[in-house]
Each structure stands twice: as structure tokens, then as C-alpha cells.
Amino acid sequence: MTDANPATDDAPPGPDTTVREAVFEVLRRHGMTTIFANPGSTEITFLTGLPDDFDFTLALHEGAVVGTATGWAIATGRPAFVNLHTTAGLANAAGALATARTNRVPLVVVVGQQDRRHLAHDPFLAGRLTGLVGEYPVWTGHPARAQDVPGAVARAHHEAVTGAGPALVVVPMDDWLRPAARLRPAAALDIRRGRPTLGREIDGLAAVLDDARSPAVVVGSAADSESDWAAVAALADRLGAPVWQEPFGARAGFPQDHPAFAGHLPPARSAVRSALADHDVVLVLGAPAFRQYPWEPGDMVPATSTVLQVTPHADDTHHSIADRAFVADVSSTCQALVGRIRCRERKFSARPPVTPLPPPRPGEQLRPGHVFDLLARDLPRDAILVEESPSSRPELHRRVPVRAPLGFLSAAAGGLGFGLPAAIGLKLGAPRRPVVAVLGDGSSLYGIQGLWSAAHYGVGALFLVLSNGGYAIMDRLAEQSGRGKQPWPSFSEVGIAAIAAGFGCPARRIGDYDELAATLAEHLPALAGRTSPLVLDVEVAADPAYG
User: Fold this and answer.
1) Least C-beta-crowded within 10 Å: which of 57, 163, 477, 514?
2) Burial label, 225 (beta-carbon count in 10 A; 0-12, 13-18, 19+)
3) One-character DSSP codes across 232-284
4) How far apart (Å, rounded) are the C-alpha atoms in residues 253 and 140?
5) pLDDT tens by residue, 71-102
């Protein structure tokens, strides 16, 4: 993330400038002139009469507010500005803020508070906000004076970028109209950041790879850029090594139609050991080493394997199983390695293509695999695919390869309710790219209010909802536990298309293979230019197994 529009002629506020006006200048300086919010009374003074160069995006639940802002920040490559309403707003946004932190997305979140002048009396709507969302914010500011608010918002921007997550500022409602200070704030006007690169350490890393009998590469979310993809592909070709995608990756770190792509690393220890059994050196790029679910006994890798890790995120090295970890930029490290290691013969074979499922026979339901085959057939190469369908995610990975940077997004924290609003934010932030959200019907209900925003703001995303009438992933896990029947019921009465229509969003219920094929063939090729959302509520049978 880089600062947008750095100031060149900034001066302290004038004598009649309010805190509110000074904050607007901070937001302009850092390219945060789009406000994502679900406001309450503590935000009235700040939001009413917005300057003409600011945009306001309303969502009907705070989880959708933060999810939309997160998608927008990912698409634009800069922090998003979020405004939440005291205790209720911040608490409702907690899960979405956790996702933003785990997905490493910078957000500046201003949380409203009661009037500073009577907070001591604990008035109605006074928020006990300290620690409400735990450790998920990368920084939290409680300005001691109204005059400290502009500097705190600027610092929150810097903290969000540096910490790659949400930074919070709590602002009492009366602060906005107080006179601004004429002194310089306690936040730099402009921060320039360099990429962490390796010096002489690169030679030691190259030597281990050169000595390897059979290296393998594992890539992750921190390698999802054009330069990362090109550099990792060049290194894989030089090493002659297969490339795996990390388990539960929020983004794709490698082109999944490349001959070196070996698939998605399994989430269980025994399966990881089996997948990596033939490799004596495992190079992990832009990913934790390793993220697992569920627990299993034994080590995460074969006992004879050496694990090397390169990531720009130092905290991922702190809980790593790597023998040697390097905090460094992925693309520059790979480029340096290509020039230092010998070229090997290819030691991988391209994966055989996945055979499409035959259409269902009369009386048979569609399966998720049918939906994904049809999606893969017509999905534009540069599409952004947002996933929140836990029970069918492995099938989606098998049948729909990611072919462009920022071509895949999921919630790294694992919580539901992110996919639908994130797709909206992605399309708002990258309007020229096709956006498709693949959602379970259960998953979609956690962020369903976002459909109103999609309809109101003309967001041309496609929401492909796989409706099996229940929490299929929970049903499968319950079966696998062997502990008896699950107590939760199905919810086949829920109609996602009807709910979407109630929010003013175009929607269709589809249960027929030919109808789905024709609908996707009609809408997917032109999705980039679409100016209204579309929900396809597809009746499917639950996948029989997970993983």
C-alpha cells in the first residue's frame, strides 16, 4: 500500500478551521475521500454537509460496511475509511474487522463516541470501547483533546498501512466543531516505504536451493501481484519445481493454469507430509509455514525436509516451523535467486485436466461441481472470484483455476459474512474487472444486507449462491466426528432470491442445468461492463464430503 496524493504545500490549519475540516484535509491527502458507514447519532456532526469531493457508501449492517470497505481497499491498493457508531456499531463490525486484520487489509476506522463534556456521567450511548474488538486493530487512538483528532486520523492511516490491518480512532461527537490547532500534528505528512530486501543472506538461501535434491515451492497470499507471479514462475522454471498453493489462502500466489502448479496443499498434517514426501527442501513464499485445520498428531512436514520461508510479514515468521525464515519482498527475492541458482530439468508433470461432470440425469439435483464446470467454461480470465462456500471450496479449487493476480479472494480468518460485501467493494474499487462471488446460502445470510448497497449503487457483480438448504460444512463435520446426529435443523424454507428481491436486487432461482448454462453464458462474458447486481440462487445437493 502506498500513500495517495502526498501533500506538497500543506500548512497548519487556518484560525477558523474546525477539527472536522482539518480531518477532511487529512483524508484528501491520503486518498480516503470515500466514506463507508452505517451512521448513528454520534456521527451526525461529522457526516452532514459532506464536501462535494467526498463520496458516501451506506451499508445496512456494520459487518457489510467493513466487508465492503475491505474489498474496496484490496481493489484500489490503499486504505479505506470507515465510520462506525459507538458501541453497537463497533461490536457489530468485530468479525469483519478480524477478517480485515487476518487478510492484512489497511482500514482507518473512526468510531463515534458521546459528547466529551459529559462522558464522566456515563450518558446514553456512551461507549465502553477500549478492548471491545480485542487485539484485531493494529492501533487504537483515543485523542486526549479535540485538537488531537486530525493528527490521530493521520497516524491511523500510517499505522494501518504499516501494520496491514484496521486502525481505530475514537472521536467524541462534540470534537468535530471545535477549533483545530495551528501546530503541526503528531503524524508525518508523508511516509515513503521501501520493500524489505536481502543482502548477503540471498547467497546462503541460493546455496541451500542449489544443493537440494528435489525442491518444492509453496506460495501464499503475500505473493499475489503481477511482479510476484512473474518472479515466482521464473524461479519455479529455474528450479524445475512444483508449486503448491498454501492451505486456506485468502489470495492466490501463482497462476493456477501454469504447468508447475501442483494444486492446493491439504489442510491436514498427514496429507501435507504425504504431498511433500518426495521433496527435501520446501521453499515457502508469501505464506505462513503452515496453516492447518484440524489438529492431527505428528509434524507438519516430513522429518527429512528443510523448510525455507520468505515473507514480507515478520509476524508470520514468529510462529513458523521454518528452519530458516527471511523477512523480505517475495518478487525481488525470487528475481535475485533466479540469477544465482543453476537451471534444472523439470521435475514435475502438468496436472491432468479435470474432467467435467456429465449433466445430471432426469430427477437428479445439480451438484456444486456442475455449477463450477459451467462457471469455468465462461469465466473471463481477469475475473475476481470471491469464495465463501466452505463445503464446496475444494471442488471450486479443482474446477475453477485462478489465472490472473487478484483473481481469488476469501476470508483468511474463516468467519462467514465477508464474501458478499467484499465482492461489492471489489467491484466499486475495480469497476473494469468482472467480479463473481460464489457463496453458500448459509454463508450469504451473514452478509445479506449488502445486497441493498449493491442494488442502490449499481454494483455490477454476480452473486452465485449455492443453495442446499443448510450448513453443509457443519453437517459433514458432524458426520465425521462420529458422535451422533447434529442438533441444528436445515433451513430449506429460506429463499435467497426472494430476500434479494426484497432488497431491490435482481435475482433468479435456478434448479435446471440447461437454464443455468444458458444464464451464465449470457451474463459472464459481459460481466465487466455490468452496472447492476445479479443474484443466481442455484438449487444444489450438498457435497457428500469435505476436503
Assistant:
1) 514
2) middle
3) HHHHHHHHT--EEEPTT-SS--S-TTSTTEEEEPPSSHHHHHHHTTT-SEEEE
4) 31
5) 999 999 999 999 999 999 999 999 999 999 99
Provide the 10 A C-beta neighbour count for residue 221: 25
Asked whether the beta carbons of 424 and 418 are under 8 A apart, the reply is no
User: CA 237, CA 311: separation in Å to the nearest integer?
Assistant: 20
CA atoms within 13 A on the CB side of 275: 22
Q: Check whether 3 has a pLDDT greater than 50.
A: no
Question: With contact defined as beta carbons under 8 Å apart, do 239 and 215 qualify?
Answer: yes
Q: Are 538 and 510 in contact (CB under 8 A)?
A: yes
Tell me the three-class secondary structure of 374-441, residue by residue. HHHHHCCCCCEEEEECHHHHHHHHHHCCCCCCCCEECCCCCCCCCHHHHHHHHHHHCCCCCEEEEEEH
3-class secondary structure, 210:
helix
Give 474's DSSP letter.
H
Q: What is d(CA 151, CA 16) in angstroms, rounded to the nearest whole number?
A: 18
Looking at residue 196, what is its pLDDT?
83
Residues 6+ apart with CB under 8 A from 383: 404, 407, 433, 434, 435, 436, 524, 527
Point out the least confidently predicted range of 4-13, 284-293, 383-392, 419-428.
Answer: 4-13
Alpha-carbon Rg of the chain, whole angstroms? 24
pTM of the complete model: 0.94
And the C-alpha cell for 542?
A: 450438498
Of 166, 152, 159, nearest to 191 by C-alpha is: 159
Total number of residues shown for the chain: 547
Provide the residue type at 403 as one letter. Answer: R
244, 218 Cβ separation under 8 angstroms: yes
Q: Are 160 and 79 in contact (CB under 8 A)?
A: yes
- Assess contact for 136 and 164: CB atoms under 8 A: no
Phi, psi at 326, each rounded to 5°: -125, 125
Q: How far apart are CA 50 and CA 474, in angstroms?
A: 45
- Contact (CB, 8 A) for 505 and 451: yes
What CA–CA distance (Å, rounded) separates 399 from 395?
6
- H or E segment and range at residue 166: strand 166-172
Degrees, nearest 5: CA angle 458-460-463: 120
Q: Is 57 helix (H, G, I), strand (E, B) or coil?
A: strand
Question: What is the pLDDT of the chain when averaged over all its residues?
Answer: 93
Residues 6+ apart with CB under 8 A from 456: 58, 504
Q: How far apart are CA 151 and CA 123, in angstroms?
A: 27
Closest CA to 106 of 151, 69, 54: 69
